[in-house]
Amino acid sequence: MTTTPYVAAILNELNRAEDQLADEQVEQLAASITAADRIFVAGAGRSGLMMRAFAMRLMHLGLDAYAVGDTVTRSFKKGDLFIIGSGSGETKSIVPMAEKARSLGGTVAALTLSPFSAIGRLADIAVRLPGAPKDHADNEEATIQPMGSLFEQMLLLVCDAIVLRLMEMQDLRGKTMYGNHANLE
Q1: What is the pLDDT at residue 137?
Q2: In the 8-state DSSP scheme, what is residue 137?
Q3: Across 11-27, average pLDDT
Q4: Which residue of 85, 107, 126, 171 has the fewest C-beta atoms within 10 A of its own C-beta?
Q5: Which of 141, 152, 168, 185 is the catalytic position?
Q6: 152 is known as an active-site residue
Q7: Is 89 within 8 Å of 73 (Cβ atoms)?
Q8: Per DSSP, what are the bridge partners of residue 106?
Q9: Which band of pLDDT confidence, cut at 50, 70 and 90, is reported for residue 172?
Q10: What is the pLDDT of residues 81-115, one digit of tens each?
Q11: Whole-angstrom distance, CA of residue 120 vs CA of residue 123
Q12: Which candidate, 143, 151, 165, 184, places its Cα nearest to that of 43?
């Protein structure tokens, strides 16, 4: 068997998942990004990689964006936005970060499967992403993909869609953004 049927199955799952998104939640997050002084992102594992990619695109937009944990990440302050990508919403290393961001007067946003999770409850903005939890083995109908793959793919796609929405709001084009791309490569 070739990989082509698997690609088609994944794309089919992503199309079904897209139909479950709440546009108003995503739009609220996009608006909060434009209102924030600075944007900080975090996630663990593959979700963390998707969030780091998001921070990079926000920087390409000319926004002051950081991935929590990087050596060049600034201190969080009132007026800043902390965006968390966590399927479970219970990532033990990130819950205290969300609590700290709230205590400092910042806004917390969560991209999650579980808006009623610990992180979801701490969030001012909770965007429920469709997908399946990592331990979905007892519910194979949710996705053919292993572990949290569907959530992680949706996380990247939704973040990229937010970037497109922000580009539209700022009347930016990719060529303009390229001026912020690293050039010491």
Answers
A1: 52
A2: G
A3: 84
A4: 171
A5: 152
A6: yes
A7: no
A8: none
A9: confident
A10: 999 999 999 999 999 999 999 999 999 999 999 99
A11: 5
A12: 151
CATH code of domain 24-179: 3.40.50.10490
Closest C-alpha to 42, from 10, 88, 73, 84: 84
Structure confidence by residue, pLDDT tens digits, 131-160: 776 665 555 557 777 778 888 999 999 999
Residue from 145, 155, 151 nearest 6 by CA: 145
Locus of tokens 């580009």: 167
3-class DSSP assignment, residue 23: helix
Question: What is the rounded distance in angstroms from the CA atom of residue 95 to the CA atom of residue 135?
Answer: 20
Structure-block tokens of residue 124: 């001012």
Q: Are 42 and 122 in contact (CB under 8 A)?
A: no
| Per-residue confidence (pLDDT) for residue 156, from 0 to 100 | 95
Record the tokens describing residue 58, joined without a space. 């926000």
Q: Are 84 and 114 in contact (CB under 8 A)?
A: no
